[in-house]
Every structure is written in C-alpha cells, then in structure tokens.
Amino acid sequence: MTVTPDLADRYGVRSPRRRAQTVALWTLGALGTVAAGWIGWSMATSEPYVVNDYGFVVVSPELVEVTFDVTKDADVALTCRLTALSPSYAQVGFAEVTIPAGSDELQRFTVDVPTSEEATTGLLDGCEALPAGS
C-alpha cells in the first residue's frame, strides 16, 4: 500500500509491528473467551458429587466389606452400587446403599456385600444422585 507524502506527514504511517500486536491481542482474546466458556460449561454440567473406592476386605467366603469415600453437596442424596467379583470376574455379590442428604464433607462408608461364593475383590460400581426430596 502506498501512502501519499501529505497524509504520511499528517497522520504517520502504521508500522507492520503494530498490526502484528493487534492480531496477537485479538487471538488471545478469542482464546480467553473459549477457555472461559469451556470452564463454565464443565462446571455447569459436572455431577454434584465425587466418589472413590478406598478398599475392600474379604471377611469370609460369604462376605466382602467394601470401603469408599463420598464428597457431595449437602442437599444431594445418592444411591451407590457395590459389587463383589470372583477370580474369573463373575459377579458373586451385590449390594446397594442409600446415602442421605446432609453433610457436604468427605465421608467414608464401609458396606457389607454378601456373596454366593468366595470373592477376590469388592468394588464400588457407581453412584447416582436421587431426585430431590427422596
């Protein structure tokens, strides 16, 4: 682009460096907007609870104790499924436990899972939030 000398003297010439800075700022702004949107979306769609297996103890051929941790919002009640497995990964025991709404602190639960034969492992199979008021 050619600039006439009168206009260049009056207004100055825009340097290529200034254009690169403008493009860089617009790019950073767009990336920041995308990042903020992603964080907001992930927070809005995340579950109001976190559960983790802690461990298990094979008490007898008929019983496994499964221990797990729960952190949840105070107004959330959960139902959790626990499973005992044989060496061939067949399900040999099952239990379901309801965790009432209340505390929002980390809680540890130990649940007895009756088995039809000796199990080699016990685990938390998953939890689901119960509808409000349950």
UniProtKB/TrEMBL annotation:
Pfam families: DUF4307
Key words, A-Z: Membrane, Transmembrane, Transmembrane helix
Segments crossing the lipid bilayer: 23-41
Statement: the UniProt record of this protein carries the keyword Transmembrane helix: yes
InterPro entries for this protein: DUF4307 (IPR025443)
Protein name listed in UniProt: DUF4307 domain-containing protein
